[in-house]
């Protein structure tokens, strides 16, 4: 079974690269807004609060978004589980992070 702490660290690594890409191309925020709008159209009432929380972050100051994407607090870890930035990283970017974390994972006994 995978170490949940390692999974959280891997998600953080994805988001840190995402933050760098957003800094270079702020239009990626609009792409995340479009993703969020699609999700909101079909979201269950139970999921809506987290999507609304993401909406507030995307509509807020960009610095708050960067802090969230690089954050290690509980809120950042929780929101990372439903990031609207899915698909922003290239296969090569994701692959590099996945390979790095695969090397860190203990081998199955």
Average pLDDT value? Answer: 92
Quickly count the domains. 1
* Main pleated sheet: none
The assigned structural class equals mainly alpha
How much of the polypeptide forms β-strand, as a percent range? under 5%
The CA-CA distance between the termini, in Å, is 11 Å
Which sequence of SSEs, written as H and E, runs from N to C? Answer: HHHHHH
Task: Please report the total strand number as a whole number.
Answer: 0
| Helical fraction | over 70%
Q: Which regions contain 5 or more consecutive residues with pLDDT less than 50?
A: none
Rg over CA atoms:
15 Å
Number of helices: 6
Rough outline? globular
Structural description of this entry:
The protein has 109 residues and is an all-alpha fold. The chain has helices at residues 4-24, 27-42, 48-59, 62-70, 74-80, 91-104. The chain is globular and about 40 Å long. 72% of the residues lie in helices and 0% in strands. The model has no long low-confidence stretch (mean pLDDT 92). The termini are close together. It has one domain. The longest helix has 21 residues, at 4-24.
């Amino acid at each position: 079974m995978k170490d949940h702490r390692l999974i959280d660290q891997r998600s953080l690594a994805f988001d840190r690269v995402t933050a760098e890409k957003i800094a270079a191309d702020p239009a990626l925020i609009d792409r995340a807004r479009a993703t969020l709008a699609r999700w909101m159209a079909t979201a269950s009432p139970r999921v809506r609060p987290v999507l609304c929380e993401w909406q507030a972050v995307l509509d807020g100051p960009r610095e708050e978004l960067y802090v969230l994407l690089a954050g290690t607090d509980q809120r950042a870890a929780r929101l990372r589980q439903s990031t609207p930035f899915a698909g922003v990283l290239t296969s090569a970017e994701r692959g590099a992070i996945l390979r790095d974390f695969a090397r860190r994972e203990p081998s199955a006994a």
